Structure formats: structure tokens, C-alpha cells
Amino acid sequence: MCGIVGYIGKNKANQILINGLLKLEYRGYDSAGIAVIEDKNIICKKDIGRVSNLYKLEGINDLTGTIGIAHTRWATHGKPSKINAHPHLDAFNTFAVVHNGIIENYNELKEDLISKGYKFYTQTDSEVIPNLISYYYKEEKDLLKAVNRACKDLKGSYAIEVISKEEPDKIVVARKDSPMVIGIADDEKFIASDIPAVLEYTKDFYLLADGQFVELTRDSIKFYDENLNEVENKIETIEWSETASSKCGYEDYMLKEIYEQPKAIRETIGSRLNENEKCQFDDIEIDKEYLKSITQIRIVACGTAMYAGLVAKNTFEKLLSINTEVEVASEFRYRDPLIDQRTLAIFVSQSGETADTIAALKLAKKKGCKTISISNVLGSSITREADYTIYTHAGPEIAVASTKAYTSQVVLLELLAIYFAEVLEKDSEEVKTLKRDILELPKKVEDTFKVADEIKELAKQIYEQKDVFFIGRGIDYTTTREAALKLKEISYIHADAYQAGELKHGPIALIENGITVIGIISDKKLLKKSVSNLQEVITRGANVVVVTDKNLSKYNFKKVIKVPETNRLISPILTVIPLQLLAYYVAKEKKLDVDKPRNLAKSVTVE
Ligand code: M6R
Predict the structure, then answer these.
(1) Of all protein residues, whose CA lies closest to atom 11 belonging to ligand 1?
(2) Tens digits of per-residue pLDDT, 505-563?
(3) Neighbours of 528 (CB within 10 A)
(4) 487 three-class SS
(5) Ligand 1: distance of its center to the CA of 351 in Å?
(6) 222 tagged catalytic
(7) Which end of the chain has less Cβ packing within 10 Å, N or C?
(8) Best mutation site among 351, 358, 375, 595 for ligand 1 pocket (most ligand atoms within 8 Å of CB)
(9) Is 151 a catalytic residue?
(10) Relative to the CA of 400, which ligand 1 atom is closest?
């Protein structure tokens, strides 16, 4: 959480830093700030609120410094306020630091520094960092060494940028369990917590490894390990285009990303799946013998990524006959799960930086599991930990609410299940049909968008409601959970998802006149059961909306949203789309900031 940008070069830093922060606001948006070095002094400008507020700060547009650091915050320690905003300076205004992550032992460090004469002005954990650096600098007289010593005292996670008026032509960067990249162009270097922040300036990036330190001057860049031995790092060229991380005429990123789903799915399929050929995964080495030896598959993730796992569970079990369990990473990591070397553990994370998912992966490795990570971000932390990584290739997802990453994750997991089935020589008729149906998906997703106008109208009818229920059975229940999450997350309407058959065991007591219940029906076998459950809530006054790929005309539902029919196993990819659009249009009716919902950030890098 929080976004970091840094610049060192020949141009004025202020505009580059603010531009970068604007692209990173999805990481946090409660306060923002920049610090530049000008005439060997540190000039720091910061304020509460959105990044665009920075433009209003006196003198910010006139800064001429060509070295600077910047931050947009998602508060953890200390409420959002000007004083708690980054950059933070040490007590003597000599060092400025921006920090992502959490310093767990900041209280002890603070007390110790206070006893040494340091004064503190904020409620943040981050403020200990510039003060520690200041303390060690007295001895080391070298910025890199002082930062390194300070980091040795820190417990927790961090990605930091440091500037100092003692060494005004330098930026020092360090990271542990929090991402950081460095973009390179002629005579210029761009530092960022996420690639899209500086994609307009370069496509060539160094991805920093955990524990790495970097010293940047205008004409040099040196990488060090945690003991300050110089190490090599290689440049990766990023294929994302700049337009991939801009709105391209759409009002919001979320809408753009919803409409990018056909393309994202095509990219996810890529060359992995072709009709009449075996599914290909060049990036993993998993053979028949190993697959025959495993007793279970675990899919572990958070939020929407976890729901992608729940969809795929059906396919893994159906095609492989291997017990597949899906679990929330924040529970899994503290639960001492029953896993061992006969467990294949798959970790799904769009950002690849979700703290709980990474910790869960480390636990699975410790317990002897083979691990696969699924991520959308090249070189993200999770990909460095897992035995194998496969990428969704959905393109940058900027809106906090995940849409195209979700459907791409489902597709990728489906492909993986098919691949394993073929390795196991279980390539049944079912596998062949699923392959064909996946190849038809992008076109069917395009056809699904035809419901957009109907959904806009529906949003007008329900945006003032306090509660909305989503119900479904089997695989449709999974989609109800994702749909409820989307609605809650961006429209702030309380939404609950229930297995349709469970309603009678309690929640039906909440059904009263005028309440909206959205039913999803795509499973033919369960159709009649789901229809009965919907009739039961209609009888109790609910306004029922049905999202389905079946012909339900004989049941006389007042509102049916029809999506194209497809294979049951991948039907959630189509049934979720009207519900993504519904969440979007309800939030628009409520005039909310769709891309940056309150209290949230795109990457949850704290537990
Ligand atoms: O980056 P990740 O896929 O690991 O993120 C996991 C969740 O935080 C994320 O899916 C979250 O639930 C979305 N904001 C939901 O739209």
C-alpha cells in the first residue's frame, strides 16, 4: 500500500514526481507529498487529501530541483493528516525519507532515539527511519552505509527512498518485502513502487530483489546486497504500453478494464491453448509422476483472487479427481494447515505483492509443498518466492476493484487444470470441450457487454438501497460472492452472498418488501432448485433480478439479464460481467470515486 516515486536526472523533478503519484493513487490516496533537493537544501511539500491537492501548495510549481522523492499514502500508523504525510524528515532536517510498508518495532526504536535526543513530530512508524539514518550518519559519514545500518535495525517491511542535503546529488533506495523498481532512460532514473507510475518515460526497468540497496547519482547506478557487497542486476524490458495504463477515453479505469476483458482473456490464453493441440505451459516443470504423487491441491489467495480459485476448484476436481481446497491467505498462514510434499500449492495474486498471500506461500514452501504463483505483475514479490510462476498477461489493472484480473485468473487456472489433465493423460471428452469453450470466451465476453444499457437502468433502480442479496448454487454461488464484494467495495451498499439453499436456514428473515435479490443461474442441474429459492423470496416481497445463460421465460421473472451460454465450468466469467457493470453504474449513480473507493488500496502489502 502507499505509492512511491523518485527522480534523478536533468529535468525538474516536481512535475515528474506529481505525475507519477497521480498514476499511483490507486495505492493510497489519503495524503501525498514530495521532497526535492534545491541549492543543497531539502524542500518538502505535503498535504492531506488527493495528489492533485499538491498543485495548490505554495511554491510547489516553482521548484527547480532535479532530484526528488514522492509518496501517496494509505494510512496505517497515524491518521491521514498533513503532518503524518510523507516525506518525513529527521529531527535536524538533513534527511528525507518516503516509506512503504510497516515498521513493527518502531516504538522501541523511537524510545531509543528519544533517549539520544531525537524529537518526533508525527504518529507514524516511518518517522523513525530518517532519524535512525541521521544517527548512523554521524558515525558513517556515508549515506548508503547509514541507510544500510538503519535498515538492519528495522523489523517489518519497507521500500524506502532517501535523500540528504549532506550528499545532495544522490538517492539511496532499499527494499524488504515491499516492491520497488528503477526505470532507466538517457541520463535519467525513475524510481517507483509500481511500473505504471513512470511508464511514460521508459520501458527499461531494474526490478529490485528483496534486501537490495541501490545508490543512484545522475550518471551511475549501483546495486548492493544487505551487507553492501556490490551485486549485478539485469534490465527487464516491459511490454506494457503507456496507453495500457491510461484511461483511453473511458471515464474511469474500472470501466476501461471491464471492457478490456476480451483482450485480457486472449492474452492470458496466448499460445498456451490451441485447438487440437495439447495445452502448453513452458514456465513450469511438472510431470506425470509428480502429479500422480500428490494427494491434494491448495489454492490460496485474498479477495477477488481467492474467488477466482473457488471457480477453478470445480475444474481441478472434475478433470483431475484431486481434492482441491481454496483458502483465504490471511487464515491459511496462521492455521498450521495440513499440507506436505504431496500438496501442490497455488498462490494467486494480481499485484504479486499481497502480504498475506506471500506469507502463505512461504509457509507452504517450508512445509515441503511445490508452489506455483499466478501473478499479473512481472517480477513481483510473489514470483520471486514461488517454485514456478505463470503470468495472466491481463495488462496493468489500475482500478482498486479487480475485474479483468479476476477473469484472467479464472482462465489461467482453467488452463492449468487442463494442462495437468493432459499430463496425467486424462484428456477426456470433457477436456476437449472445455478447451474449445475457452477459445470461444473472448467473443462471448464481447457479446455479454450488450446488457450494459439494461444494467445502467437497473443501477438507477437500486442505488438507494441499503442491502442487496446475491444468491446462487454451486459454481453460481462463487460468482455471487465476487458480485457482492464488487458492489460493497465501490458503491458502499451492504451486499451479502448466500448459497440459495441456505436462505431458509436463517437469512430469509431479512427478506422484506422491496429488497433486491439477485439470483445467478447457469448450472442446468441446479436450475429448478435455484428457481424455487427465488420464488420463495419473491413471495416475501423481494424484487428479484436473475442473471442467467438459460432460457427462463416460462418462469415469468420480472427482470432477467441474459448472458451467452457457455460451459458450466467457465460460466462465472460471463455471469460476473453484468454484475461488475452493476457495481460500476451503482457507484456512478451515487457519484462515488469508482477507481479509488474509500479506505482501500490496490495492493494490500500489510497484513
Ligand atoms: O493483488 P491481489 O490479487 O493479491 O489482491 C487481492 C485482493 O486484495 C483483491 O483482489 C481485492 O479483493 C480487490 N480489490 C477486489 O476487487
Answers:
(1) 303
(2) 988 989 999 999 999 999 999 999 999 999 999 999 999 999 999 999 999 899 999 99
(3) 11
(4) helix
(5) 8
(6) no
(7) C
(8) 351
(9) no
(10) 14
